[in-house]
Specification:
Length: 305
């Protein structure tokens, strides 16, 4: 009897197929087990928390998009308008590099935020918007204060005719050099002469305080001087009547006197001057001759109220 050995060669393809089949079956069993565990063994509280996490993630994205919208609104709407207001009010404009309110910091800060990169980005966006809004709020406060000052200054500026257009016959003498009506030489005429009938109304041309009120020895006759502040003043001369008191505060369009021919005058008219830093300037540069009768009446009504 002879003992013999036969070498068996392994089939690599068969072994690989068996291994792959085993791996596939293991994955199927694992996934099925996980699904069954999740459906039947995981607590309702865990499933509720999972839903909340998903909901919070959606909310993070929604808030981030809303923040980006507000950031765009600031840059494209509020920043340009604010700089326009500053230009009008003669305030230095704010550069966009300052308005962007950028900050610096360590890159490791990202690791300190809760959750994913979205929560970190949202936190950064909210912080930036907060800084930008503080800058914008401060700028608007300054613009508002300057606008109030500008409005007050405009209200005090002598900016209307002292006699209503319907009562005005003509302007007989302009500001500057003219021939003296009583003498043969030229003189400097410091105002405008508004020709109107005796007794026609004379109105304050801007808000202010009456500082001079008497019969003038310089030829102006019955004279009123109003201090409008901000460097401005106005004079009303040759009046027939004076209807206010010294020290009284008056409003633009308020009735202060009546046209006359008192003092050194050839006929009934109002001599009207505008003073800046106590020096006469051309009144024509200040009053708005384009005002309609209705607009002028509105100013008078506001003053009377």
């Amino acid at each position: 009897m002879t003992l013999t050995f036969e070498e068996l060669k392994s089939n690599r393809k068969k072994r690989f197929a068996e291994f792959f089949a085993y791996l596939l079956i293991s994955m199927i069993v694992t996934m099925t087990s996980g699904y069954l565990l999740n459906q039947f063994l995981v607590s309702p509280e865990s499933r509720m928390l999972e839903k909340k996490v998903i909901s919070l993630n959606h909310e993070l994205h929604r808030l981030f998009e809303k923040g980006r919208h507000y950031s765009t609104l600031l840059r494209n709407d509020h920043f340009p308008k604010d700089n326009s207001y500053r230009t009008i009010l003669q305030i230095d404009t704010l550069p966009y590099s300052l308005r962007d309110a950028g900050t610096g910091g360590s890159a490791s800060d990202a690791t300190l935020s809760l959750g994913s990169g979205m929560s970190y980005d949202l936190d950064n966006l909210i912080s930036k918007l907060n800084r930008q809004l503080r800058i914008q709020s401060g700028s608007y406060e300054l613009v508002y204060e300057k606008a109030q000052e500008h409005s007050l200054e405009l209200a005090h500026m002598p900016a209307i005719q002292p006699i209503e257009q319907k009562d005005l016959v003509m302007i007989s003498s302009n500001f500057g050099v003219r021939s003296d009506p009583f003498l043969s030489h030229d003189e400097i005429h410091h105002g405008l002469d508004f020709v109107a009938a005796i007794g026609k109304n004379v109105y304050a041309t801007g808000d202010g305080t009456v500082t001079f009120l008497q019969f003038s020895r310089t030829g102006y006759g019955n004279e009123i001087v109003i201090d409008h502040a901000f460097g401005f003043g106005s004079r009303y001369a040759h009046l027939d009547q004076i209807l206010i008191k010294e020290g009284q505060r008056v409003k633009r369009g308020q009735l202060i006197g009546k046209v006359g021919k008192s003092g050194r005058s050839t006929g009934p008219h109002l001599h009207y001057e505008v003073l800046y830093e106590k020096k006469p300037v051309n009144p024509a540069f200040y009053f708005d001759s384009s005002l309609t009768r209705e607009e002028y009446q509105k100013i008078l009504k506001l003053a009377s109220n």
